[in-house]
Design brief:
globular, about 35% helix, alpha/beta, Nucleotidyltransferase, domain 5, five-stranded mixed beta sheet, about 350 residues, single chain
């Protein structure tokens, strides 16, 4: 099948769209993709909502915000298809992840904005959304959902292998030599650093880690954040974007460069701490997501991990589009009734199918 996937990550930096051809199992062929900008009004509204109150229960209605998000995704997908001469009849299914705004699996709550029903009507293509819901309702973490796609793409690579996604939140897929899979969220990715860059410097992010490289790590704030019970908790486990928000409170009096250096050290420290949960140490780390472009952060991880740490482009993958490709892949699996998650990836009680199908009619 030919499937299109669309997602915006926890850093809300772009709407990523990718088209793949796949059987939903071992066969995957990326076709094309792009990262498109958010409409500024919609992006500002999402960021303001995320920054406003991290303690929300996750149950209040969000009709106006969801309409903005749905319109943003519909416009981006339509522009992408038009720009590449792709007609609705050329796509079998769209996998719409949308924009996560809450993730509280302990309370069995997860919320991704973007109405698949409206998208199906507007674009004339079947849409699968709600990828995380069945897993969370069954008692799983609902995240991460990329491991089965990572495993399909990594079939020819040497193992043990770790695939690390450094988006707003960090998550890792560990792939063993016998085909075993373990996955969980490691800790903050780029979200906290981006929050400081926006609030204190008027920047979207710290390009190449240049600001962090000039700073001095606040060791007490770092130690307090690294003492989080989350890090010693056995996987599977997952995080909300704002789970480590308290780390920012310990840096209120720090210079921006020192705050950035401390938060970068937190990202590296939580990734390094994740290794205690692996059955065997990875021989190699492949990194996707925006964090792989932070050259200073990547250098710090190489030093901390002591093995090759490379962008996924080293093996021919596209690190900007991997998650969008993943949700195209999962949409096909959803149509086939195949599992989207496993007990070793989300803690679900059994291999869990999922997703909600919306047809144009």
């Amino acid at each position: 099948m030919r499937a299109l996937g669309a997602i915006s990550g926890t850093s809300v930096d772009a709407i990523d769209i990718a088209v793949i051809e796949t059987d939903g199992q071992a066969s995957v062929r990326p076709v094309s993709g792009a990262s498109l900008p958010w409409p500024e009004t919609a992006r500002a509204a999402v960021l303001a909502f995320l920054a406003d109150d991290p303690s929300r229960a996750g149950t209040e209605p969000l009709d106006a915000l969801e309409t903005l998000v749905t319109d943003a995704f519909a416009g981006a997908i339509a522009a992408f298809m038009a720009g590449r001469g792709i007609a609705a009849r050329d796509i079998d299914v769209i996998g719409l992840h949308g924009q996560t705004v809450w993730h509280r699996p302990a309370a069995r709550v997860t919320r991704q904005l973007g109405r698949g029903s409206a998208l199906a009507r507007r674009l004339g293509v079947a849409v699968v959304d709600g990828f995380r819901l069945a897993d969370v309702v069954a008692g799983g973490q609902g995240a991460p959902l990329a491991p089965l796609y990572h495993a399909a793409r990594a079939a020819p690579l040497e193992r043990p292998l770790a695939v690390l996604n450094l988006g707003g939140v960090g998550n890792v897929t560990w792939l063993g030599e016998a085909g075993d899979i373990l996955a969980f969220d490691t800790g903050p990715g780029s979200a906290l650093m981006d929050d400081v860059a926006r609030a204190r410097l008027g920047l979207d992010f710290d390009r190449d880690g240049a600001i962090a490289a000039r700073g001095t790590v606040r060791t007490h704030a770092l130690a307090a954040a690294m003492a989080s019970p989350y890090l010693s908790k056995m996987p599977p486990k997952s995080l909300d974007r704002n789970e480590f928000h308290g780390a920012l409170e310990g840096l209120e009096d720090a210079a921006p460069a020192d705050a950035m250096a401390t938060l970068a050290a937190l990202t590296v420290g939580t990734v390094a701490a994740a290794r205690v949960h692996f059955p065997a140490l990875p021989r190699r780390w492949l990194v996707c997501g925006g964090g792989r472009r932070n050259t200073w952060l990547m250098a710090q991880m190489r030093s901390a991990l002591g093995v090759p740490v490379e962008p996924v482009e080293a093996v021919g993958w596209d690190g900007d589009l991997l998650e969008a490709e993943c949700f195209a892949y999962l949409a096909v699996r959803s149509l086939q009734g195949l599992p989207l998650s496993l007990p070793g990836t989300t803690g679900a009680p059994r291999p869990m199918p999922g997703g909600l199908l919306h047809t144009p009619g």
